[in-house]
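Thread amino acids onto this structure.
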């Protein structure tokens, strides 16, 4: 089947595609996530005894960029490049039999080292706001420098300007003391070094994960891995590596996160589909008094909680959003307790949750009106001069902008109208010649976000023309299984089903809105 045939099939029945997508969530309950260079590199170093070791090494070799680095452009490439380079140096030091020649390994590691040396010695390095980056970078630089010292190389890597090893040392001492640590730190337990091995502060979940992270799980299992094949954590890791034939994602499971986002994208767009009753029951049951985590091993967070609540309200089974009060601060809502920084997309999703519940339960609307007003004001203050928003949980401003704009469009009232209009203008001004949108290059995911904003909040001829061009682009790239990872974790990742739902929503909106979008036969 040609790409055009696929496009026509997808466009002809977004409802059927949405139904298949929702049913697929039941068959893969841990979630569907792209493999991670960072996490895969950590398993190469920490768990060479694990199934798929050779496949992981070869995958790292195959995904190295021509400039010697790994990962996305700009500062996003530092963490994956450090992890992959250190992993290859570990393989060389141990002399692992991976099926990859020693010369190939040496050349790839040397290219990685040259890029890292240039990158870290320069003054223009700007690092993104990624979880635990202030701990991960020093831990990897220290490991690489140990390799260099063993090989008699006298020029160690330096830390980025403004970054110190002191926070890492403090966390390692904290873990070693066996005192209770914040649950969110377990997601990056591998940075604790030897103290992670069997750390008493970590608790194995029912499905055998530590912190919903393969790297954290392998670091905690440590030297028991080879000798205890039946250990729950070993079993969990074996199950994960089979997903991609060796490489692993940065976070798994993401059960509640994935279901909340998929269902909300589809329902908000008005796509007809049925949700398995047990999925709705599971989603409702996951939300406790303190909210819900994205998946087992993670702390509750306002983002997952609010999107799950919003999806439930859209689907006709609303649940009071009172668990979100646990995340309220004097000015806004935090992602989790003790968060450093803030997130506009999280606050936009909290606005969605409160606003939609108030809409379907008008008798209770007064209870949430003050919070809705506070959220509106906070989001309006953080809009950039060009009309967009940016965020700490996604590399693309199109994700942040569609999250904020749609929440304000639906629940922000008259005071939010100018801001939404400015966002529409920014989207119109940043469309590429081929009809796509994207931070670095046009992508189906980012085009879907831009298209949704135009179709929900726009209306004049310029909007209709841009929407038609964006729709045509989506049809040309209908096979959306591939695409760059843009979501923030320790490394960038791509939640496949979530992105697929966003694209389906945009396609359905383009077909169903009376905005002059051309028929498929004319595209």
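Threaded sequence (523 positions):
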């Amino acid at each position: 089947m040609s790409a055009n045939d696929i496009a026509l099939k997808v466009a002809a029945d977004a409802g059927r595609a949405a139904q298949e997508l929702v049913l697929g969530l039941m068959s893969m309950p841990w979630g569907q996530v792209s493999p991670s260079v960072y996490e895969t590199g950590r398993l190469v170093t920490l768990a060479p005894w694990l199934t798929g070791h050779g496949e992981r090494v070869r995958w790292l070799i195959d995904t190295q960029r021509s400039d010697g680095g790994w990962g996305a452009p700009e500062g996003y490439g530092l963490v994956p490049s450090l992890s992959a380079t250190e992993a290859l140096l570990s393989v060389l030091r141990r002399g692992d039999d991976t099926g990859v020649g020693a010369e190939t390994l040496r050349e790839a590691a040397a290219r990685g080292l040259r890029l890292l040396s240039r990158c870290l010695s320069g003054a223009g390095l700007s690092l993104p706001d990624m979880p635990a980056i202030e701990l991960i970078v020093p831990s990897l630089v220290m490991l690489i420098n140990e390799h260099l010292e063993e090989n008699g190389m006298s020029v160690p890597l330096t830390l980025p300007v403004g970054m110190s090893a002191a926070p890492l040392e403090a966390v390692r001492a904290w873990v070693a003391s066996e005192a209770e640590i914040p649950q969110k730190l377990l997601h990056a337990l591998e940075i604790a070094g030897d103290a992670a091995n069997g750390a008493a502060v970590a608790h194995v979940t029912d499905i055998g994960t530590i912190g919903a992270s393969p790297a954290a799980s392998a670091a905690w299992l440590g030297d028991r891995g080879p000798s205890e094949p039946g250990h729950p954590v070993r079993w969990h890791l074996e199950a994960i590596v089979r997903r991609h034939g060796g490489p692993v994602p940065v976070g798994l499971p993401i059960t509640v996160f994935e279901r909340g986002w998929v269902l909300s994208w589809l329902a908000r767009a008005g796509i007809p589909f049925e949700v398995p009753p047990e999925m709705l029951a599971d989603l409702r049951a996951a939300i406790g008094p303190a909210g819900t985590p994205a998946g087992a091993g993670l702390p509750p967070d306002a983002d997952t909680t609010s999107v799950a609540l919003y999806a439930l309200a859209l689907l006709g089974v609303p649940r009071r959003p009172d668990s979100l009060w646990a995340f309220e601060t004097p000015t806004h809502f935090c992602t989790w307790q003790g968060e450093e920084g803030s997130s506009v997309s999280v606050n936009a999703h909290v606005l969605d949750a409160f606003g939609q519940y108030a809409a379907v339960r008008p008798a209770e609307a007064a209870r949430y009106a003050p919070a809705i007003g506070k959220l509106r004001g906070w989001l309006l203050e953080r809009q950039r001069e060009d009309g967009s928003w940016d965020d700490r949980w996604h590399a693309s401003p199109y994700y942040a902008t569609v999250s904020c704009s749609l929440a304000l469009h639906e629940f922000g009232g008259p005071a939010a109208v100018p801001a939404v209009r400015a966002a529409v203008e920014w989207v119109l001004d940043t469309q590429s010649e081929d009809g796509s949108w994207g931070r670095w290059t046009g992508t189906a995911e980012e085009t879907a976000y831009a298209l949704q904003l135009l179709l929900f909040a726009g209306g004049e001829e310029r909007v209709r023309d841009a929407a038609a061009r964006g729709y045509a682009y989506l049809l040309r790239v209908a096979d959306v299984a591939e695409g760059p990872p843009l979501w923030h974790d320790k490394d960038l990742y791509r939640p496949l089903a979530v992105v697929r739902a966003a694209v389906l929503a945009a396609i359905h909106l383009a077909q169903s809105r009376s905005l002059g979008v051309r028929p498929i036969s004319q595209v």
